[in-house]
Model the fold of this input.
Amino acid sequence: MKHLHHVLLTIALALGLATTGCAADTTTGATSPPARQEAKTVTVTGKIVHLSIEGGFWGIVASDGAHYDPVNLPKAFQQEGLKVQATLRTKPGMVSFHMWGTLVDVVDIQKAD
Done:
């Protein structure tokens, strides 16, 4: 009996997970995938930081405290503490092992005073 209870609980959990992330249309009962996020372009002033987690990588800490994880930071800007102004494009839906900040492409970057 205990085994049957565990099997039923496992099936219920699996069904619950299978429907997570789908929006139901209350008029027809149909489901659709979650809305796709659009990439945004942001201009930030901040500093370059090197993080030693996950094998080490470079990030940008904006003056407002936001963290950005650039996938294409030019080598010339890979300097700890370098102040920069950058135009960044977010990469919604993309994931990284870094798990630190918003994943972005560097569109433009310059040294800041």
Observations:
- The chain has one helix and seven strands.
